Amino acid sequence: MKKSMLLVLTLVLSLTLAACGQNTAAPNNTSGSNGGSTNEAAPNNAGGEEQTSSDLSGSLLAVGSSALQPLVDEASKKFMDANPNVSIQVQGGGSGTGLTQVSGGQADIGNSDVFAEEKLDEAAAAELVDHQVAVVAMAAVINPDITVDDLTKDQLVQIFTGKVTNWKDLGGPDQAIQIINRPSSSGTRATFEKYALGTKTEDLPGSIQEDSSGTVKKLVGETPGAIGYLALSYLDDSVKVVKYEGVEANEENVTNGSYPVWAYQHMYTKGEPNEVAKAFLEFMISPEVQDNDVVELGYIPASKMQVQRDVDGNITK
After folding, report:
1. How high is the pLDDT of residue 154?
2. At what angle do helices 275-284 and 69-82 cross, to 10 degrees?
3. Confidence at residue 281, expressed as pLDDT on a 0 to 100 scale
4. Residue 191's closest CA among 107, 293, 309?
């Protein structure tokens, strides 16, 4: 009798445990038909997308604008972290160099501050595809010891054409002006000449030419009487930024069109980009880069511009 009761109790206990197991699994099965299952599955799907992204492999060479270089360099590091089988090399050298090398097939991407039509012949420019990733403003910068805060267009032209050679003639100290210029291949120089000066300039005797924006900043900050020009992405306390016609070089004035010395930041490919280049260029215009790196490094998202500019410099709203 005792054995029979024990057997019955054992069977009852087994059935109870089995029922509990079914009840425990039921919520998962139920949520599998509701929105809850989507939430549970999302991490797996996302992980699948990340795995697909990390399957990218190959190498890219991006060459050109030193004004754009800090942004491309920073974004490339993040992209390579997410895609360990991709190698991206970023080099400066100026917009002209970038456009020439991408046109000639030596580089995958040509970084430029100017439209390709401004540096290449019509046929070569027509082969390139323009990917605009940001806007950058340029500003005249001087040695911090110079007591000048504002320069007009005419005054800048006089400086960069050699008609004025001493700061005392511009309301500053009795100090010779030392021009720190960029080479003719520089997109920064082309932008500054086109939108700040309104004319091309010749290289003056005694002026210093530097390919690197970082070197320009260093020389202006350390050289008595120096003047140069830099993208806003390079500005810090080592140099003094002067107003242009009384207008400060800042994001608000650039986006509303009141400050004219700015340019799109182009990343050109010869024809449509390959798989790796396309993925990287899409990353460049993603919120991760546009809302973070672009802003933090002193660029302006193109989406914020209230005005547009074409290759001829015409402004439309």
Report:
1. 98
2. 120
3. 98
4. 309
Cα 260 to Cα 151, 176, 249, distances in angstroms: 14, 28, 9
CB-based contact 307:315 (threshold 8 Å): yes
- Retrieve residue 280's tokens: 């990287």
Can you read off the two tokens belonging to residue 64? 């050109």
- Which helix (H) or strand (E) segment holds residue 209: the answer is strand 208-209
Q: Residue written as tokens 């449509």? A: 272
Stretch (H or E) spanning 59: strand 58-64
Integer-rounded Cα radius of gyration of the chain:
29
Question: For residue 109, what are the CA distances in angstroms to 48, 88, 130, 173?
Answer: 29, 10, 10, 45
| Whole-angstrom distance, CA of residue 264 vs CA of residue 214 | 20
Contact 180, 216 (CB under 8 A): yes
Arithmetic mean of pLDDT over the chain: 86
Q: How far apart are CA 212 and CA 215, in angstroms?
A: 5
Alpha-carbon gap, residue 21 to 40, rounded angstroms: 21
Q: How far is the C-alpha of 227 from the C-alpha of 165, rounded, in Å?
A: 11
State how far the Cα of 265 lies from the Cα of 131, in Å rounded to an integer: 8
Bridge partners, residue 151, by sequence: 244
What would the pLDDT profile of 59-113 be if each residue is shown by its tens digit? 999 999 988 999 999 999 999 999 999 999 999 999 999 999 999 999 999 999 9
The amino acid present at 45, given as its one-letter code, is N
Q: How far apart are CA 176 and CA 167, in angstroms?
A: 6
pTM value?
0.75
Contact 119, 96 (CB under 8 A): yes
DSSP 242: P
